[in-house]
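Changelog excerpt

This revision adds worked examples to the README so contributors can see how folded entries look when concatenated. The first example is reproduced verbatim below.
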Amino acid sequence: MRETDQLSRPIPKKPVPNRHSEIAMFERCLDCNAVLEEYDDDIIGLCVVVLATYIHREPSLAKPMLLESLMAVAK
């Protein structure tokens, strides 16, 4: 087959699952109705290492969002 024949052929579309038919249950905060997420210790530890590295290497860029980042990590 020629390359031009391959390019001119229509690409078959895959069916997209209907998001409305999926049943999803989330735990939500009773006060603000935000979705509560759960992470294991390894993921939290990795996030803290990445955050510390960013603060160490780029303190001037990290300063404006440092308080918000620390509040998010402390929750």
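The second example, added in the same revision:
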Amino acid sequence: MKAVVSSFEAVAGNGAATVYTTLAQKAMSKYFRNLKDAIMGQIQATKKAMGEKDPVAPGTTKGETLRLKIIDQALRQQRAFQQMSMMETHPWRPQRGLPECSVSVLRAWLFEYFLHP
């Protein structure tokens, strides 16, 4: 905004941009206030749809509901389990021998070509 004011005043003179910047600031303030009100309305509608009645339940902070806290904990726990299972199936150390899927392919090939000529 300062760059625009400086450019405008360089052409129109000092103080010429004051009226326009005041109008722009009021318009932006109104826009962001309306945006904030719309977002708050959506949050309240979501809380109501989820059955939240108490705005601040024990054990939660302002802006955090009990049900959302439980959902967050469940998602974190699920992500932790997924990470643990990935570590078990994909060890970071070298394997001894071939992976099971490779062994299965080789057994099938061996059975097909050598045991049934």
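Reviewer comment on example two: The chain is about 70% helix and 0% strand. The longest helix spans residues 18-49.
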